[in-house]
Amino acid sequence: MCMTTDKVKVMKLEDLPLQIGKEVQLNGQSIAVFRLSNGDVRAVSNRCPHKNGPLAEGIVSGEFVFCPLHDWKISLVTGEVQKPDDGCIQTYETEIIDGFVYIGGV
């Protein structure tokens, strides 16, 4: 996970529905942001390592997103693709401050 003190405000928390991804563009990078059923907010690269599927359009289950193209299961915590598939995506630090979602490490 990228760690940095630089954080960027990306949206109001209330604009991020539970278990539905949103795509944001930061510094030329497409990032998928998710609010999990437990209230945690996660941010990852918006491209599946398999065929570049848009992960913001994927189905969220627990702390995982399923790629909408070929159903690869990817951890929103570690970025690791679950076996038997193989790969990894970039994860980003998230923080909620005064009702806004911030992303760091971009």
UniProtKB/TrEMBL annotation:
Residues 8-103 form the Rieske domain. It comes from the Bacteria. Keywords: 2Fe-2S, Iron, Iron-sulfur, Metal-binding, Nitrate assimilation, Oxidoreductase. The keyword Transcription regulation does not apply. Transmembrane segments: none annotated. It holds the Pfam family Rieske. InterPro entries: Rieske-like_NirD (IPR012748), Rieske_2Fe-2S (IPR017941), Rieske_2Fe-2S_sf (IPR036922). SUPFAM superfamilies: ISP domain. Gene3D superfamilies: Rieske [2Fe-2S] iron-sulphur domain. NCBIfam families: nirD_assim_sml (TIGR02378). This is Nitrite reductase small subunit NirD. It comes from Paenibacillus motobuensis. The gene is nirD.
